[in-house]
């Protein structure tokens, strides 16, 4: 039993389960998944489907955070990617042509990658604090998206493009499959190659990493580029899901949700250790939270309070200090493992720059 | 951005060209962009020099802009308030500087109506009422329960508050009409679709969808289709604004009725500006010309839609 | 003569960490006006005992009696207020604050609640530092000074408080002989004032010089308490280690090796006029295959800088470095590593370890970085290597999954060594590798250096302990005032005294 | 023993380290000046002192917000709740005064207390339960905004004479006039400066930001200081809210969305390191001015919609890169 509760993902998973069960009380057939037109259909599937873009963005964010950075520009990249793709498709005579759609997707992802790389250069080469470096694109990026579309919402009518966000494959939503594939590939690359270890090292102690010969700059660049790419893919999904691109609203505030997902998943914002599985759980918790709001009919005015309470509860439960201080009375007093060793300074010596 | 960088000192000066300072809310929607375009185009057409600023949906930016206009001594200031309160101090400054102010699109809530010369724009409450009127007419004589779901705009936004109120008050008298779920779709297609999907999962029996704007309705339509129902038939859809896509959806039979909210008030505004500069008295409240469009009118109106 | 009433007494202290019992029912007492040495191998529980005493950790069982009263400190602040002043094992000061502020923070002179007298603080800091013979700019941020200076500042901070009990956890590990004498002078003065001192060190000479009594811990258990003059070194070591091993004998004389034979070959590495303004004046240095070059000098003399410039940790402004006859063009750590150079930095906490990673990950890191992320070390090979070096260096706990953060100081140092040894470098730069390492392990490391050199590895060896440098090196470079003033062959004529003279005069006499 | 250091070494170190601390702030000031000169050469009226005064006036609340944020960031934390706290403050003021008929004399202190208390609550959660600041204050951000909506989604006008009159009061300054809010914000800066540099609390903030564990082991009151830092931030946020209420004479629940990012950016641009322990409150003033000047340039340029955003981003980029280039020269 203790082995289970000790697992770093135990608490987020628990909260996810509790949230889902909460829905069940309000709506007894919440867990029912039925077949409809050859697609699986049900609330759980919806959570996965609408959570897919967040999962992707949070995936990229996890890697960035692992290196001790943060990427605020993901929301803007989401909107730009959608804008680029939809603009290209809308200009085609046959919007259903697969080649045109593929080109549009490639262009959008290329642009997203470029924007990510720009962030990476700002952080790793010019040495600007990540929050500010990415704030620039966060502000300007949405302007660029609107510029691309001349401030209008572009509506397209392209079946192949629509597949990305609203299509189905093997009875499952394509978006979910794409997101899970990305997650699986990334997780595999991180753990099978040494990339994960090197990122954790850079995030854990940048100077020590330099002295063991890790070329942190290119790693950091890579990570921001991946984050851009993930955000771009999420942007395609979001715009494809509604067959239109909205420069102003697509991906608005998704950066906060993504960061939240990463932290709920147990990755510390200070960098170092990261958990991709945790991030997936975190993204699902957040999406389930929205769904719960709809299911329970929480009025829009109190939605945020509801959200605040849930977030606080998750994070408190996750905190060993909280558990030992509040529940400690009932068990033998033990030193919390994660809070351990206050003697060891967690940060490196920081010299005023 | 031209117009501001002129070299003849105080932009307005003795120059005979009228200078209009316009502080726009932002570029948050296609509707708003159409509004901006209309104002720019008609200013150019009328030979009025337009100084335009974009507040990015922030009241403080808009106040800064207005203060800047006062500083630059423009002839007339016009703006679409982000929110209806909080303008007294800066409008007093404008009044003290002798610059007339025209409100567009949204009203301000001030005891001192002398702070602005006129307000031109739609009445969001009336829009909500019109939406309800259509619904009441549609179900006239039938005595069955009508389950309505509502997609609200962003919390705190004036159109969301007023459209909800106008609609809600108008159907309140008839107990057959019941709003079974109401949630914010934040005025966007993506959220509209997401919320509608959840509504469809938890409410098997939806008769009517009332969306505070077209974008949410357009998103919701896709959710309804994915759930295997027919929008416009299985679920009747009422929407507000009247963007081109919504008219297209009406033509396709997916939206039943659109209450127009007209962003193209540029020509009317320029007219007013000229009158105000000329010293003519204008009415305190000018409504924009707006209609209610149903499916049978949609096909005819579609080619003329400009936004 | 009966012992006086102890000022501090700890009874039955038990402290558990997940998976480790760091202390099991340990008793300890400290008498007023004595210097009490706390002895034990790496990981014996010395630092943990100190942390339990001062409220950093809360013990599972046991009690603390201070001046006749039962006390329980919930934080170091409380301990400090009760008159227990501590220098913890790692330098625990704020790198961003100035030296003066580090000494005074928390007890700045105040007027009307405002901290106003900065000049006074600076003046008093300078006075206090002068007591340990340190004359530095007290307004500069602490981070701009070497670890040794930081250590001295920490000591000054601790002794500046008028305390009943002063605890010094390995304060001398980064100090050279001179500083140690300064510190001892300060300690003796405190002792005369009736202050009780608790002192931890792995240097037996220091223990015998300064301490009155000692308590020995082994594996978190109390071995016993002795008067220092009643316990011989051999007995002490065997009590610490738990067997009758004669480690001390192994520590004795290593055979001097033939320098001439080595130097007949081309040097493995040659530095020509390498230097950087403000760090070290341009120097020439050559290191041959199988040669151990020691660097000697006072604290701040520039030994670390020489090492860093060679490794590329700092970018040199002048000069060239040639390895195996080909010059190194770009000098960054990764290019140096690419040419089989390895560098164990002196400050393991900030420059060496990634504390959130496990022992295994820390050990494999350098090898992995050299291979690039696309070619991970195969798990089998990795586990085998890690296990081999945990065993070879006797890292405790011998669990590759343990977080490095939770290792004792000495074991952390061993992890750092293991990291570089598995890369099988041709030149190994060791900056204070034996800092904080117990006698047994120190002998192990010294033996390791000798055998590595015999196998053809070159070693650049920096240590504050002159004896150690002398024992291991073929050649000793002497630094003074950031200048390499002499390179002395380590033959019969070279003695610690001669090196000291060279340091003092700046030339070989 | 011989002395360990050479006199030249000492002198070198002095020049090196002494000035280095001020490099970021000097770089910021320099680039700001450049920008201002650029604006003055490009646009007429730009050089008018009133324009500069307006920058102060229009950003008084942001300045107060950013001062609170400076404390938090110096301690190594972050506070995302300030934008929402500002909105909550305006809503509480407007609601209590207009709808409940309370007097401003009770409402304003009450609102400030609310700010300090909720700040402390977040600080306590952060310190005692070791919840990351980002998350704890994000929850605070949601909660405060949610409370605004619960009070009213509609905006509430304040017609109390105290508010309308204070809003119209001007402090004469030669030929020009400045707002009382500017005076208040500058007083806040001065108090913050003294608190940071001349009180133990302030010094402890720097120490914790430098290394929290060390600060703990040095026997500094880490918990108290951390809670205090968030209390200060909460207090400043509601204080800024009160200023905002004077600025607009109303309360509105959507006020200040995203303002926390402006505040953080202003602090960081002002040379404070996000990792904590290094920075100055005067740098924050410069950071806020940078924001104000960028806004002013945009205003004078009269850009169309999305170009505004692009220009803000571009100017920010220009500024940061210049600041970095100038600042990096020393290191
Ligand atoms: N925070 C912690 N979490 C888990 N284990 C710990 C922690 N701190 C110390 N330990 C373990 O407790 C034991 C005692 O460590 P301690 O630091 O007291 O040793 P030490 O005697 O000071 O050694 P050294 O001479 O190397 O400094 C070690 O096995 C160490 O790994
Ligand atoms: N007198 C001094 N004044 C200012 N800074 C000094 C002085 N002496 C040393 N330092 C600082 O200390 C740092 C360390 O010096 P260095 O590492 O060269 O000494 P070292 O010979 O390696 O000494 P050790 O390793 O014994 O501490 C240098 O980076 C320098 O900034
Ligand atoms: Mg120890
Ligand atoms: Mg050194």
TrEMBL record, chain A:
Biased composition (Polar residues): 338-353
Broad class of where this protein is predominantly found: membrane
InterPro entries (alphabetical): ABC_transp_permease
Mode of membrane association: Multi-pass membrane protein
CDD domains (alphabetical): TM_PBP1_transp_AraH_like
Presence of the UniProt keyword Transport in the record: yes
Chain ranges passing through the membrane: 40-65, 72-91, 97-118, 130-148, 168-190, 219-238, 250-269, 276-298, 304-322
Keywords: Cell membrane, Membrane, Sugar transport, Transmembrane, Transmembrane helix, Transport
GO cellular component terms given for this protein: plasma membrane
Location in or out of the cell: Cell membrane
Stretch list, region Disordered: 332-353
GO molecular-function terms, A-Z: transmembrane transporter activity
Protein's UniProt name: Simple sugar transport system permease protein
Source organism of this protein record: Catenuloplanes niger
Lineage: Bacteria, Bacillati, Actinomycetota, Actinomycetes, Micromonosporales
Automatic annotation (TrEMBL), chain C:
Coiled coil: none
Cross-referenced SUPFAM superfamilies: P-loop containing nucleoside triphosphate hydrolases (SSF52540)
Cellular localization per UniProt: Cell membrane
One Pfam family here: ABC_tran
Membrane topology: Peripheral membrane protein
One Gene Ontology term, aspect cellular component: plasma membrane
PROSITE patterns: ABC_TRANSPORTER_1, ABC_TRANSPORTER_2
Principal location class: membrane
Name of this protein: Simple sugar transport system ATP-binding protein
Origin: domain of life: Bacteria
Species of origin: Catenuloplanes niger
Molecular-function GO terms, alphabetical: ATP binding; ATP hydrolysis activity
Keywords: ATP-binding, Cell membrane, Membrane, Nucleotide-binding, Repeat, Sugar transport, Translocase, Transport
UniProtKB/TrEMBL annotation, chain D:
Matches recorded under CDD domains: TM_PBP1_transp_AraH_like
Main location: membrane
Membrane topology according to the record: Multi-pass membrane protein
Statement: the UniProt record of this protein carries the keyword Cytoplasm: no
Gene Ontology cellular-component annotations: plasma membrane
Keyword annotations: Cell membrane, Membrane, Sugar transport, Transmembrane, Transmembrane helix, Transport
Protein's cellular compartments: Cell membrane
One MF annotation (Gene Ontology) recorded for this entry: transmembrane transporter activity
Stored Pfam families: BPD_transp_2 (PF02653)
UniProt xrefs under InterPro entries: ABC_transp_permease (IPR001851)
NCBIfam families per UniProt: PRK11618.1
Name of the protein in its database record: Simple sugar transport system permease protein
